[in-house]
Amino acid sequence: MIMNNNLSELQNLDDLNMSVDELFSKVDHDDLESEKITAPRYSYWRSVFRVFFKNKFNIVILSLFAFIIIFSYIYPMFSGYDRFANLMDSSAKHLSPARAMDKFGHNIHWILGTGASGESTFDAIWNGARISISLAFICAAINLLIGVIVGAIWGFSKKVDKVMMEVYNVISNIPYILLVAVLVLIFSPSFWTMVFALTVTGWIAIAYFIRTQVIIIRDREYNLASKCLGTRTTKIALKNILPFMTSVIVTLAATEIPSYISYEVFLSYIGMGLSEMSLGKLIFSAESAMVTPGWQIEFWAPVAVASFITIVLYVVGQNLGDASDPRTHM
Amino acid sequence: MKRYLISRVIRGIFSIIIMVSIIMIMVYSALDRNQIFAQDPTYSKLGNNQKVVYKYRKWAEYGYLDYVTYGDYLLQLRNDEEITEEERLSLSSFARTPDGDSEEVAEYVKKFTEYYTSEGYTVSRLNAIMASPKKVASGGGQQLFAYKDIPLVRRAISYFSNLISIDNIHNVKEDIEGRGLTFTTRDPLSGGSFSPAIMGTGTTHKYLLYFDSSFPFIHQNLISINLGKSYAVNQGVDIAETMSSTQGSYVMKEVTFPTGLTEMSADDLHTAKYVAGSRESSKVYADRFTDDYTNVITNKNGLSKIGYSFVIGIISVLLAYLLGIPLGILMARKKDKLADKIGMIYIVFILAVPSLAYIFLFKAVGGRLGLPTTFNMESSNLLMYVLPIISLALPSVASLMKWLRRYMVDQMNSDYVKFARSGGLTEREIFSRHILKNAMIPIVHGIPASILGALVGAIITERVYVVPGAGNLLTKAINMYDNGVIVGVSLFYAVLSVVSIILGDVLISIVDPRISFTTKDR
Asked: Is the ipTM of this complex over 0.85?
């Protein structure tokens, strides 16, 4: 069908009643012009976001992400949360949402009831979420930065590989809880101690992962060709391999960030967590409330919010990772 | 292959040694020593000089330092017959302040100080603290002692050299009659029937090799693993024994003791160990035993810590593979269809949500269904195993599904699959005979790790369901500052992880002939 249409559009030049000079003009041959490639401008990150936003589900999940960020970073500035504000008021403690709202008025603060010292569970959760999310982002950023750089060197140099494999064997065998516990006991269980504890050896797993990826790509034909043409190793690493790894790194970040939140919850649960009221600490301190009839919401609310946050972060990261793979840009 | 494996094992041992040394530095040097007294009720009751001495004594007990008192020194001199017992008694009472010492005492105090200072000790003399000019304050008595930190290298060397001990007839230091080994075909404990046993006198254990009716029928005490002693978690007991001895309430049965006394008892006489002078000090032992091999392990009705962890762990591993592999295959075959999407939602749920959250969710749901939510060693109800097993299995199902799907999808576009398809094989055949075989290789690599990992136990699951397993041992030891247990358990973990990686590599090279670890074979 298409073929036929095209044929019918073709016309006999004689039907136009024009001279050859009018129809055609001569173009000089231009070396410079012939080198230009007429392709649309390509921007990597623009097409990443084009692919990302093409999926309508991603817009929903991104708005949930924005919701989480607003509630954990901006909401606590206005909520005026004070953990011990109602400490002396014994009738304010362990209230169910309905009773809390009867007592304090219909207000967003009380929709999840009150906790053991009469504080608003809802405000406490978002205050804790801010600490947990900050911890996760800072740890992930440090670990990814060190891990990717070390992993790249590790993958490229065979000498470094030999040494690093032994280092990896030693470090990966040290129980993580022991390391965290020792560091927490040496310093104080503060936010930055926790960051240090989670990053002091945390980068090595990432570096090992990156090293394997680098080894896989390192000896591909295009890199071999590049090497034969005399490209320096640093340039190969930065221009040939790093772009290839972008989607891997984004996907890695997507699994790393929620895993630190989970890890913080785990550490708090076994009693080695932060001293600040992070999400994990909230869950830990509300564990006894879980077995008391009527108080369960104090335990389940932070658990549910922690799960919600980790799922949203994970899905955003995974989909961003998928979108950052150039093979999906077609 | 053999040479490669040997070099792997040697490198593994090397990295374990370094790891244990790092952990020793961490727990013995980096941690604040005063922390171990945080929960000690005795420490808070003591005052003045007694408190100081108690601190040093405990530190010596926990393996931080060598500690000798002036009294110990004199006792040593008496044992070496340099001084007599009367001299020792008169010399041991040193005065409240150095100025008050009598001449002889001052001489021996000086000797003590010089001797231990030359050995690198720090000698400390605490003068009596007086409540009034006549009366010494409570706990304020004068003290004289020497102490020295144990250097890391010595600690590590002695730890590793004592790790595996072979029982021999010179282990008992005291005089003992008839030192030697005896072989008997009729074990006295078997009631006269045929049962070969090797027994020792002068050895640590009385029975070195014996048969009995419990699995695996032949037992030995000849070679024992010595991971170190526990102080707080399980007072004075070896860590390997803490992990592997049975728990629960005693199983009483009629036992005939060597003296002929027959009693209802839970003692397992085959485990008898030498304790010097035990019959003299205790009438019960004197009634029961004819020699000083009196320290026995008791039979209890539960499993050991490792036993519980392993039973729960191994069933959940089996369950995980039985569920995870078919589900992973299903997801790969129905890629982008409904089954795949449901599977993906499940995987995201398990991977993203904190493990604590879904374990509590399983517990809440299981509790609603009427399953027991807490573990009870005394109960014979097998249903109490269900929830811990499910809580361990379902997460590993998710990760198996995720990886198997990933590997199979990767294989689906490869040339050999296209070739098989063009050859006219059905999809079912392609999947089960070609893709699965290749996709399973990395999965097979993880099998030893997951089986051995079952020995370690699971921290959260065991805590939530109150399982008396091995998972909590490390956290418990950290909370109680039990350095011996921390080092021993970490060593145990490290050995398991090194072994499981090596076994995994061996297994894949058996499964896939293309994989070879020696460059020569290529």
From this structure: no
